[in-house]
Every structure is written in C-alpha cells, then in structure tokens.
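Course assignment 3, question 2. Fill in each field.
Student: A.L.
Task: Predict the tertiary structure for the chain below.
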Amino acid sequence: MQLGQKIRHKRQEKGLSLTELAEKIGRTPSFLSQIERGLAEPSITSLRKIADALDVPIFYFLLDTEEHNPVVRRNERKVLNFPESHLTFELISPDLNRKMEIMEARLEPGASTCDEPLTHPGEECMLVLQGKMKIEIGEEVYYLEPGDSIYYFSMIPHRVTSVGDEDLVWISCMTPPAF
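Answer field:
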C-alpha cells in the first residue's frame, strides 16, 4: 500500500473527513487529497502532524509491512560469516535497519571472535545456549555456561573465546546495531 493510500485508509478508519483531518493538521483538504491520491509527497513535518492527528506512530506510514515481515523463519535467517573464520552469525532480527540487532553466533572450540578485543558503540547482552564461553571485557574475564548471560557496555574492549569441547552457541542482542 502506498503512503497516500495508508493515510486515506487510517483517516477513514478513524471516521474523519478530509476537511476534519486538514483542520487538525493546519493544512487544506486539497493538500490532503493530493497526498492521498499520490500526486504530492508530504514533508516529514506534515507527515508527523498527520500521524499525530490519526494517533499512529510515524513509522506506520513509512514501513512496508510486506517488505518488513516481523517473522524470521529459522531456515530463512541471513547468515553472516567472515572468510577463514571459525565464527558464524545468523541474524534473528528481520534486518540490520532496526534499533536493535539480535544474532545467534556459533564459534568452534578454541577459537575467538577476534585477535585483539574490539569495541563498538552501545550495549550488548549475550545468552549462552551451548558450550562454554570465556569473555574478556576490559581487564575482567568471565566464564559462562549454558543458561548464563552477561550484559555490558560494548565501548569497553571485549572478546569471546570458545573454551569447551563443543561449539559455543549464544544469542547476542546489541543496540544500536553494530554489524
């Protein structure tokens, strides 16, 4: 559904006429009619006013729900791996254009996520699903097993190492997305 169609649909759903919505946002009915018919594009300011008047978040009009399916099927995850690396990421969140990034990571026994501890903006939380994790965060070292989790500020240099006999598998949630 196009932007104008979404606005018309929501306006009609709320039982508002073009004139009533135009009054709420301080514009003319003609202006709204052109937007609804796809003949004009509203500015971001006008779109915010329309969203407020219709009591929906602005992203309601900006996201195409067909392209941004909230469901990610296990067999349809995007797989991210590095050349000659023992580390694999599967994206659990729908894409990398969100405010949060959720991944399932897999690391072979004895391998580390990087040679030297790395940093990135934001915060991160990890939940170990399988194997044993050694995580260095700054000067601190922590050991985690299945069911254990850790939360830290990712601006502090950090590195994960798989220290068990089987692959280390964990869920990582980062905000903002860093991948």
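Instructor remarks: The chain has five helices and nine strands. The chain has a mean pLDDT of 88.
Grade: pending
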